[in-house]
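Open question from group meeting: does this chain pack into something compact, or does most of it stay loose? Before anyone orders reagents, we agreed to write out a predicted structure and look at it together. Recording both the input and the output here so the notebook holds the full record.
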Amino acid sequence: MSAPEFEDLGGTYRLRWPEHMVEIEVSRVQNHSRGISASLLIAKLESDGPKLLVGRIVNLQTSKTALAKELALRHAVDWEVILEDLCFKVIAAWKQGDPMVWLGEVEPEPFQWLLEPLLEYGGPTTLFGPGGSGKSTLALALGLAVASDTKIIGEAPCDSGPVMYLDWEADVSTHARRLHGLCAGLGIEGVPRIAYRRMVAPLTETVDYLVSEFRTLHIPMAIIDSFSLARGGDLERGDLAIPAFAAIRQLRVPCLIIDHVNRETMKASQRGHLSPYGSIRTENISRGTWSVHAPEEPEGNRLPIILKHQKTNNDKRQLPIGLELVFEDGLIRITSQDTRTLPQFDATASLGARILETLRHGGPAGQTEIAERLEEGRGSVGTALSRLRGKGKIVQLDQHRYGLAAREDVEPPAEQA
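Structure tokens returned:
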């Protein structure tokens, strides 16, 4: 019997024996205490396409005699040889991963954004914040930008195509209203292709089906709402984040993950620094994380938001982004805002940025006065002043007072100051 045609589809494997008219798709390969198991879809190749013979979860490391006999009653080929060949090749591919390469022989590609400065190609980005802070609307707006090839938040996307929204929280009507509201409020004609799937099972249990669907639809971006529910199980179990991120990696497209924050963590956090709910692994494994800061009680139909870039693996940290969402008569408008004018500025900005702002509006001051204005420790202010002087952002006017450097009179303060 000749060797089968073997195709690695990113965690799912497809094997074909054309001379025997057999095709088997293998997915959900997992290692258990009893051995390595997988889900098999065994089909006979006919003129009008594959015809399913058997779908079964099997142990790849035990005898397949009973399954071979069952299949022989439906299609007379040497199933024992086929199944043995399949198990050997799938286990080897699953353990080895992608073929080895020598890094020195690889032509490096430049760092790439899908949508600068929020979504990169290098891995998942997590957008997290308290309930009611506009996370899902922002995520849908970013998906709309990619689906419509439109500049909405940040720069215009570098790629466009259908976007998949995987939802464990709300329902199709909720997101349809938001999408139509965004299109109307942003002046986007028609309704771009955003696919929606209401999810029930954990992501690890459905990823194989999604990989196939993403490949068929040529999906360039996915939204996962929310990670706390997508990973399944007890929300306090941090170890569940690891297999969930492994499943996201199988999708092989930039993913925007929406997650929540624990309110106790919010109370105990450093100034403006939030953490995703449940596990530090969420922040550690994400290639980039953005926290969403909004007033607990916004006024009327306007929701001011500051997006703060808390972590990056592949590029420099970005400046905060100020936005305002306006909800009016079914329309959703998004406008850019100067972060310094928003009520959350003092709670999210770095000490250096706040020093620049108080010098700009309150005039030159000494270290003690600045510390009193900002209600910060004198030592912390002194360290920040030294850093700002080293960067040329402020000057020492006399023995006790500091003022803005001339160019700071016209330039906005940098968050990393």
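Observations to bring back to the group:
Residues 408-414 have pLDDT under 50 and may be disordered.
The longest strand covers residues 35-46.
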